[in-house]
Amino acid sequence: MAAGKRLKREKERTAGRPLQCCMWRGVSATAGGALRSPSPVQTRPCVRLWISSIREQLTATTSRPKHLLVYINPYGGKRKGKHIYELKVAPLFAQAGIRTHVIVTEYANHARDHLKTQAELKKFDGVVCVGGDGMFSEIIHGLIWRTQTDNGRNLNSPEETLLPCSLRIGIIPAGSTDCICFATVGTNDPVTSALHIIVGDSQSMDVCSVHHNNTFLRYSVSLLGYGFYGDVLTDSERKRWMGPARYDLSGVKMFLTHHYYEGSVSYLPARDIIGTPRDPGRCRSGCSVCQHNGEKHSESAERYKMDIASESESDMEWRTIRGKFLAINAASMSCACPRSPKGLSPAAHLADGTTDLILVRKCSRFDFLRHLLRHTSKDDQFDLNFVEVHRVRRFCFTPRHCQSDSDLELDLRENGKRQIFSQICRDHPACGCTPAYSSWNCDGEILTHTAIDVRVHCQLIKLFARGIEEPTVFEDLTNPCAI
Ligand SMILES: Nc1ncnc2c1ncn2[C@@H]1O[C@H](COP(=O)(O)OP(=O)(O)OP(=O)(O)O)[C@@H](O)[C@H]1O
Q1: What is a single molecular function from GO for this protein (predicted)?
Q2: 165 lies in some domain
Q3: Which of 72, 246, 385, 386 is the most buried (most CB within 10 A)?
């Protein structure tokens, strides 16, 4: 029988079946954990054997989702979200027998508000967003809000222990940067992400809550940046018409402006953990650091509930640093992306209950350039005398113009007469030399307040992902064994 006829017959025979071989043929791991796109094939007996054995295995996997709530941002990135979903993802979901309820968003925060109020979450096994980091942020805000309010938690209290969300989140990358997808999957490929959803992978992730004066502001999963990164975002927002090139232009402009900001940072160092921000190891699929620190975290949360560790005891551990900073960054993940392959904190972990607090003190432009260049080089980016890094569970920042009188008095004693003029400026903001303040960049959004209280919530959400996979010895061409 001619090959064409045989294929046609086979197609007719298998039409409507939940899972077809074409989807699984050619799916294999590549370097960095990417999965190749499927290609259509004819079903020969050996292939049929494969299909039935894969189906058996998949049926046995109870973690596979069967019904998904999908939000598509039609305006994210190059405005191809709808097209990507319809062309590359929906056919795979259909072949895997996954039912979907698709909502194409009509305005910003549509997905967040729908999740908060209307979505019948009990009907679904997961939520999928088709878009970029902004869209992912909408989903986590909606889901976390809903989970906490349904369980009577007070979102405005930074002391509140939040409840982990039961629904997993899938990200189909269709934005302009897609950093979260890159950091959790290792690649920005819609088919790879769809397959992670279909097989029901699971990757826990920490979330930071950001409060100001006992009022909830936002959640963050990647970068909270004050100073340089806050200024770059604020400036680039004014140049939206330029597209992604605006980040480069604003970056150069802010580098040349070289603003530094005064304030105090207090932090609670992470105790009883393994790993430091300067480790050579990286957070990878099945990370033992995340596993160990996650367990330790739940043990100490239990102890705290039972009042074995008193609050005053933990208060004693707070440390404070006052000074002039070019940048204050908190990286809850490496923040690696195609532009900065190592990221801001290469050894940060996705789910260890901590964030890496990086303080870049006032220094020369040349030194700051050295620091920025280290994000792309092999050198240790924290090995500079004006940069310090701490792995923390919680931190607070107070800009100098918001510091209390007692704090200012302390500064006065420490730094002498110069502070008197700053005090005068603080009391008379119309004065031209008012101490300058920056804004916080919270996962790409500007925060409305500068004095903030940040707390890490260990493994609060779960993604349909498995973390970045190390290339196997045969895929890693830099490894001599591969040759
Ligand atoms: N229908 C819509 N109309 C306008 N804005 C929307 C709509 N749906 C979502 N948004 C908003 O668009 C913003 C950007 O979307 P998204 O993150 O998907 O793309 P992006 O900004 O290009 O990608 P990235 O965040 O990765 O750089 C989000 O903050 C989201 O709130």
Answers
A1: ceramide kinase activity
A2: yes
A3: 72
CATH (domain of 234): 2.60.200.40
Contact in structure between 292 and 283 (CB atoms under 8 Å): no
CA distance 184 to 188: 10
**Tokens encoding 104:** 């194409």
Write down the pTM of the prediction. Answer: 0.82
Does some domain include residue 111?
yes
Backbone angles phi, psi at 402, to 5 degrees: -105, -5
Whether residues 241 and 282 fall in one domain: yes
Answer yes or no: is the C-beta of 139 below 6 A from any ligand 1 atom: no
Does ligand 1 lie within 6 Å of residue 142's CB atom? no
**CA 418 – CA 435 distance, rounded (Å):** 13
- Nearest ligand 1 atom to alpha carbon 180: 26
Rg (CA), the chain: 25
Please tell me if the CB atom of residue 241 comes closer than 6 angstroms to any atom of ligand 1.
no
Of the three residues 201, 223, 245, the one that is the final residue of a domain is: 201
In a domain, residue 477? The reply is no
* Predicted pLDDT at 403: 61
Which one is predicted more confidently, 6 or 272?
272
CA 80 – ligand 1 centroid, Å? 12
Picking from 143, 170, 201, the residue at the C-terminal end of a domain is 201
What are the pLDDT digits (tens) for 61-105? Answer: 778 999 999 999 999 888 999 999 999 999 999 999 999 999 999
Report the complex ipTM. Answer: 0.96
Minimum CA distance residue for ligand 1 atom 19 = 76
Average pLDDT, the chain: 83
Q: Is the CB of 386 under 6 A from ligand 1?
A: no
Same domain? For 109 and 156 the reply is yes
Residue 364, pLDDT above cutoff 70: yes
Residues sharing a CB contact under 8 Å with residue 300, sequence separation 6 or more, in sequence order: 272, 309
Q: Whose CA is nearest to atom 2 of ligand 1?
A: 107
Residue 472 inside a domain? The answer is no
Residue 176 beta carbon below 6 angstroms from any ligand 1 atom:
yes
Per the residue annotation, which of 113, 125, 133, 231 is the catalytic one?
Answer: 133
* Shared domain check, 260 and 211: yes
Please confirm, yes or no, whether 133 is among the known catalytic residues: yes
Cα(264) to centroid(ligand 1), Å: 33
Helix axes 245-257, 228-237, angle to 10 degrees: 130
